[in-house]
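Feature request, filed as a ticket because there's no other form

It would be nice if the structure record came with a short human-readable summary line next to the tokens. Right now we just get the raw output. Example of a typical job, pasted below so the devs can see what we mean:
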Amino acid sequence: MHKKILLMYITVRSGHFQAARALEEGIRTLNPGAEILTIDAFQYLNPVLARIVDRMYMSVIQKLPDLWDYLYDNPKVVERSEHFRQLLHRYDSPRLKGLLDEFQPDSIACTQAFPCGLVADYKKEHGVSVPLYGAITDFHPHAYWIHPLVDGYIVGADQTRQWLVDHQVDPAKIFVTGIPIDPRFAEVPNIEMIRRRLQISNGVPTILLMGGGQGLGPLLEAVKALDSIDQPLQLLVVAGSNERLYHRLISQIPRLRCSVRVFGHVGFIAELMKVATLLVTKPGGLTTSEALASGLPLIVINPIPGQEVKNANFLERANVAREVDDPDALPRIVEHLLTHPQELAQMAANSKRLGRPNSASEAARLVLGMMC
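Raw output as currently delivered:
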């Protein structure tokens, strides 16, 4: 049976979008004839507010991180914002009704809490019974996800599941499939072929540096710090959509001792992770899930207060990551791990054990009604 699936996220430059795309690919693999509509809920329902919120969010996390730490999953903020959220949901309800009436989905999955709560409230107000799934894209949820009319939660780890259970979510509604990531992470790679294609030397430690799709974080400073290590290294740096960072990194290459390859926005992150020894990154849910699926140890750097700090705490407790707040601390951690190969190997084994490379397929089975 060819189903109609509505996938909702917010912000193209986000892990929410990447998770929605991964889920879309998983659905198409299992049900090639499925009709899938993947939309930015904010842009579709409220484009003016979407631009304002996006600018405010980026400004707050970059300039006022302590404020974001206070706001994130604060019960008082959740309670005091309830009236505003209800007003916003009522304002957006007519456009949502038009969308649902026209598309008539058999199932809805949301990779961000705003559209999930909006659809859940709509179901409550209008008696709609369409199955609704929330795909939580960090390892620690927040209270905005919780709603009695969400039919299932797609989560990345047992810890995430336990948090939801502790907050009175029915355990039967929670599915530890892993955060949906690109199905290519489930493919068995030809490591030697990847090395040849990317011109990566065998036998030399390879450090992959990433800052998410937007190239956030102190990547340039991290490269300079790692270049001080007195042993052969090769650095692979992904600047994402950050063109200014890309050109600054390129301009630095002649001044560096170690081998450096700089990439912009690329479609082969899975291959880069498969040939890396270590990943240095901000701990976003999607990037870290990809690393776990690749069995890759991490060094998480300068996490954003709120979701990224909580992700970092989860990864450190699982002994798959080390955390540094300052790029200057990177050489000490990297040198320690490279000179203690058993410790590094244990981190890699823990990462592989936690990884869920088939997460997109497993989540797609749920959304398609193929899991009980």
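Something like this underneath would help us a lot:
The chain has a mean pLDDT of 88.
Residues 156 and 179 are 5 Å apart (CA to CA).
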